[in-house]
Amino acid sequence: MAIALSSLSLRVISALVLAPPVLLAVWHGSPYFEGMALLAAALMAWEWSRLVCNGAFTSSGIALVLTCLAALAMLPFSPVVALFFVILGGLVSSLMAPAGARGWAALGAPYIVLPLAALVMLREADNGQSLVIWLLLIVWATDIGAYAAGRAIGGPLLAPAISPKKTWAGLLGGMLSAGLTAILTGMAFGFTTQAVTLGGIGAVLAVVAQGGDLFESQAKRRFGVKDSSQLIPGHGGLLDRVDGLLAAGFALGLYHLVAIERGWTW
Known about the structure:
There is one protein chain. By secondary structure, the protein is mostly helical. The chain is 75% helix and 3% strand. The protein has 2 domains: 7-27 and 126-266, no CATH class; 31-123, no CATH class. Strands 1-2 form a two-stranded antiparallel sheet.
């Protein structure tokens, strides 16, 4: 007899299946982390192209997938060439997309490649293993804190025209959870940065992650779809699962570059 699983049960099972290979790739680094980034880029490019092309994977999508993969593959050898492929991907996929979706199609390549490039850069840092795991924990803490506070407190909606469930209480709960997680795990990883700074970075990353979530929600609302795909039972598509991580990873990557330039240490 078939057993019906609730949406929450599917989400938990999917998370338990997906988390170990992701953490192993982060733990072992190159070439596994880069390989995971390439796989993620191909899947997200496929989802994005179907999202903006009414569920069809057309020549616009093929161009997006190929240029995203080329950009990430060239990143270790020439960031300039990698950026060229990002621009080329946005241009070509846009020209091949339906007239009403060309602007969104053009965003696909930078939206996918730039955050993944930032994550690869973070993992290649001297303390990259700790940095990427720290980031993952902050993003997960944001989701958990926002969900718990939103359910427990409720109140005014954060962006009712985009997401009818997100509340200001959820945002604050996510910021608090992320800030505390950033402090505790940062200290556990041996970061020498002051606790106040770690907490502030965590809280800001929580806001950025929520912004990434809202951006993808706006894209789905624009094209009238609920999920970017059905790849992950209970979660929808890969973009649905990592939208916040993409935004937070890109932001942390930029902060890390500034920290290097100014001689700051973690």
